[in-house]
Amino acid sequence: MKITPERFNQLTGKYRGLKIALVGDFCLDRYLEIDPNLKETSIETGLEVYNVVNVRPQPGGAGTILNNLVALGVGKIYAIGFCGDDGEGFELKKELSKLPNVDLRYFLQTNKRRTFTYCKPLIITPGKPPRELNRLDSKNWTPTPPSVEKEIINAIEDVCSTCDAMIVLEQTDVANTGVVTANVLKKIGEVSEKHRELPIIADSRRGLSDFPPLIYKMNRYELAKLLGRDIGEKIGEIKTAAQQLCQKTGREVFITLGENGIIGSSPRGEVVHVPGIPPAGEIDIVGAGDSVTANLACAIAAAASMEEALILANCAAWIVIHKLGTTGTASVEEIKKVLNL
User: Which sequence spans correspond to the domains of the chain?
Assistant: First the structure.
């Protein structure tokens, strides 16, 4: 299938009228750009010193999905999450406030949590791709307080009847330490049952086994883990497994396959595979999955077909993996160019 210019414009033209709620773990991506030519040795320790010549902050985690929604021109984006009352939280809120059409009324800054931060040292050498060193992460390791959970739950209740789609992203590795706690998931499940017409797309680093029946987006390994069995590597085998999960949840299922594209399955029995686009040069896969999530949400909310949604998401991921040294985004114009429209 090929999307015509008219159909592409029809679908993407609806994005500016969409309202999308994004519930999840917003992180600060802090890039430390290091000049390797400024060599120095610490007098005190004798260790090599990395001289940082530029600090580049940007929203990460759920913020990466938000960046992609902004790049797609979504009319209003409700950011539902939290940051700490710390320097990293100040930076994160400052970066979020710069973005157009982002509503931060439900974004909580609290001294009961620290800001989830990925500190990424990058060696910047002219003429070479950036080289990332070991990350320095700051996370929460204790359960999210009930008072913070309640504010998140109240926010979800406020927006669920007015938005066109909702995205849920759990970025934490330890259950109940972030935004998407068991109590928050319970509320999202209730919203999904009450508002059956509202597409709610869920993704989680820990896997989706604790999630209520929503539109699941995951990779092949997460699918196998959720089903509790080996599903093989052949496209036909993955299609069958996706359909089995889809019948179990009663909702659409999307499986990302890296260079092999994306599979989508619907409760109506539709199973579609859109092959991957061969890369052109060096790639960095960071952020590709989040671009898929954002594009699926927009396309579904704009009434795209399953295949159309997969084509748009697949193109977006291809664009993002070619943006090195940053967690990139894909705009409507960039996707249009990849589709040769």
Answer: 5-27+62-118+142-338
Task: Provide the H-helix boundaries in the chain.
Answer: 5-12, 62-71, 87-97, 146-159, 182-194, 220-227, 235-249, 288-301, 306-321, 332-338
Which of these, 94, 99, 107, 74, lies nearest to 30 by C-alpha position?
94
Residue 2 is predicted with a pLDDT of 85
Task: Return the CATH fold of 5-27+62-118+142-338.
Answer: UDP-N-acetylmuramoyl-L-alanine:D-glutamate ligase (3.40.1190)
Cβ distance 294 to 22 under 8 Å? no
pLDDT in tens, 20-33: 999 999 999 999 99
pLDDT confidence of residue 327: 81
Q: Please say whether the beta carbons of 74 and 298 come within 8 A.
A: yes
Tokens 């977006």, located at residue: 316
User: What is the SS3 assignment for 236-248?
Assistant: HHHHHHHHHHHHH
Q: Which of 27, 85, 92 is closest to 61 using CA atoms?
A: 27
DSSP structural state of residue 178: S
Contact call for residues 28 and 84 (beta carbons, < 8 A) = no
**CA nearest to 312, candidates 6, 53, 19, 11:** 11
CA distance 327 to 60: 8
CA angle (326 as vertex; 320, 328 as ends), nearest 5? 30
> Containing H/E element for 107?
strand 107-110
Q: In terms of Cα–Cα distance, which of 100, 97, 101, 132 is closest to 26?
A: 97
Question: Identity (one letter) of the amino acid at 161?
Answer: S
